[in-house]
Design goal:
Shape: globular
Strand content: 5-15%
Structural class: mainly alpha
Radius of gyration: 15 Å
Largest sheet: 2 strands, parallel
């Protein structure tokens, strides 16, 4: 199974990769699932090394700090990172919680959206979609 970092290395010359960090789905000070059996099972099944012990950021600077930790953990700090504003406009537009992967074509159309993560979070499926798009685009 590949990773998003592997995809970035393979396709970065042809595809612009962007990570957008949005509002915490399960902050420790609100709806935290970190100690539940369900959350531990999701983490184990998804192979997601992301932190699950984060309180809800209340300022943009706090959100940026958590986002930087996410970028370093999941993407070795190499994939460009953007942080949604505190009004959560990007999250609302793209239904970014809990995890979403999108492939957006040059014309702005969404070409790949596997649905809600973490179960729909598959680097292998995204790789297939990217390869197909690049083959069609050439």
């Amino acid at each position: 199974m590949g990773s998003l970092h592997d995809l970035w290395r393979r396709f970065r010359a042809d595809v612009e990769f962007v990570v957008v960090y949005v509002k915490e789905a399960h902050p420790t000070d609100k709806w935290w699932l970190g100690q539940s059996r369900t959350q531990r099972a999701i983490h184990a099944l998804s192979g997601n090394p992301a932190r699950i012990d984060v309180p809800e950021p209340v300022t943009l600077e706090q959100r940026r700090k958590v986002a930087a930790s996410c970028q370093a953990t999941l993407f070795d700090g190499v994939v460009p990172l953007y942080v949604d504003a505190m009004d959560d406009a990007v999250s609302a537009r793209y239904a970014g919680k809990p995890t979403r992967l999108y492939l957006i074509g040059k014309d702005g159309r969404v070409l790949y959206n596997p649905g809600i993560g973490p179960f729909g979070f598959s680097a292998d499926e995204l790789e297939k979609a990217i390869a197909e798009y690049l083959a069609e685009d050439s």
